[in-house]
């Protein structure tokens, strides 16, 4: 991970994570999923090296809510299944 990029460009987190923030975070993570490129994983949405800024923001939100990786995976699958 590029620490300079991280320091300058990290998206600020809200002081309190609401249920709506969790929904946005889940959506960000699924939209900004990794895609395999010859030089390594990249975001399938913006082509930035994975995890991109929005993906990192989403996972920080979910971590702040106290969700485990397993819970996040389950919620992502549920969100995927609920999509029309
Ligand atoms: Zn992205």
Q: Can you walk me through this structure?
A:
It contains four helices and two strands. The chain has 84 residues and is mainly alpha-helical. It has one domain. It has a two-stranded antiparallel sheet with strand order 1-2. The longest helix is centred in the last third of the chain and has 14 residues, at 69-82. The mean pLDDT is 88.
Low-confidence runs: none
Q: What summary fits the major beta sheet? A: 2 strands, antiparallel
- Dominant shape: globular
Domain module tally: 1
Q: How far do the termini sit from each other?
A: 35 Å
Taking all residues together, what is the mean pLDDT?
88
Beta-strand content? 5-15%
* Class inferred from helices and paired strands: mainly alpha
What strand order characterises the main sheet? 1-2
- Over the alpha carbons, how many angstroms does the gyration radius reach? 13 Å
**SSE sequence, one letter per element:** HHEEHH
What percent of residues adopt helix (DSSP H or I)?
40-55%
Tally of extended strands? 2
Q: Tally the helices: what do you get?
A: 4
The ligands found in this model are: zinc ion
């Amino acid at each position: 991970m590029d620490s300079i990029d991280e320091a300058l460009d990290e998206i600020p987190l809200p002081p309190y994570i609401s249920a709506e923030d969790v929904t946005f975070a889940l959506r960000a993570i699924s939209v900004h999923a990794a895609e395999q490129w010859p030089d390594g994983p990249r975001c399938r949405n913006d082509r930035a090296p994975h995890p991109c800024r929005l993906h990192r923001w989403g996972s920080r939100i979910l971590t702040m809510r106290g969700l485990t990786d397993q819970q996040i995976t389950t919620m992502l699958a549920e969100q995927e299944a609920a999509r029309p």
